[in-house]
Amino acid sequence: MDGVQIHPSAIVDEGAVIGEGSRVWHFAHICAGARIGRGCSLGQNVFVGNVVTIGDNVKIQNNVSVYDNVTLEDDVFCGPSMVFTNVYNPRSAVSRKDEYRETRIRRGATLGANCTIVCGVTIGEHAFVGAGAVVNRDVPNFALMAGVPARHIGWMSRHGERLDLPKSGTAETTCPATGERYRLEDGVCRSLQD
Fold first, then answer.
1. How much is the pTM?
2. Which of 86, 93, 153, 185 has its Cβ near the most Cβ atoms within 10 Å?
């Protein structure tokens, strides 16, 4: 694991793969089957399970557990103390390890502090889940989600700026920070730079 910084208090099980330039901070635990890309930062007290894939340039803040069957694509941000689950209806007395649901967080998405992502959902590219939200269904690309349960309240740019677009209909706007153009059509938001 050349070019990887691992704090002496962290535990990285033999077999884990961590990409060049990644950093693993205090008291983290990376299980043997984990696959972590280049340039990632895993904060204090982060846990990464065996059946987990993490892309490049992913930032996982303190106190986040990335459980089995979670995939984080490139450039995902996981805010402090946000939560993933992998069993939909857990019971201590009932083993459901064969019922884990796949959760996928697409490229560039942000998961705010203390939000919860209920297993079995896909969060779209560059979507933005607000702090404390509880996501229990799929989230479209560029969507801004907030509340319990999370509801769609707007759209965000790749740069993380709120876009002046209606929730539905057809419209175009630009990112106030970068000038990148976005188009909303039939409930789908996309960048016109792609």
1. 0.96
2. 86
Q: For residues 16 and 19, what is the distance between their CA atoms, to the nearest angstrom? A: 10
Which sign does the torsion angle of CA 50, 51, 53, 59 carry?
negative
Model pLDDT, residue 193: 87
27-46: per-residue pLDDT in tens? Answer: 999 999 999 999 999 999 99
The CATH T-level fold of domain 5-162 is UDP N-Acetylglucosamine Acyltransferase; domain 1 (2.160.10)
Distance separating the N- and C-terminal Cα atoms of the chain: 34
Domain boundaries, the chain: 5-162
Mean pLDDT, the chain, whole residue set: 97
Does residue 129 contact residue 115 with C-beta atoms inside 8 Å?
Answer: yes
Give me the torsion for CA of 179, 180, 181, 182, rounded to 10°.
-120
Nearest to 51 by CA among 139, 119, 107: 119
For 91, residues 6+ apart whose C-beta sits below 8 A from its C-beta are none
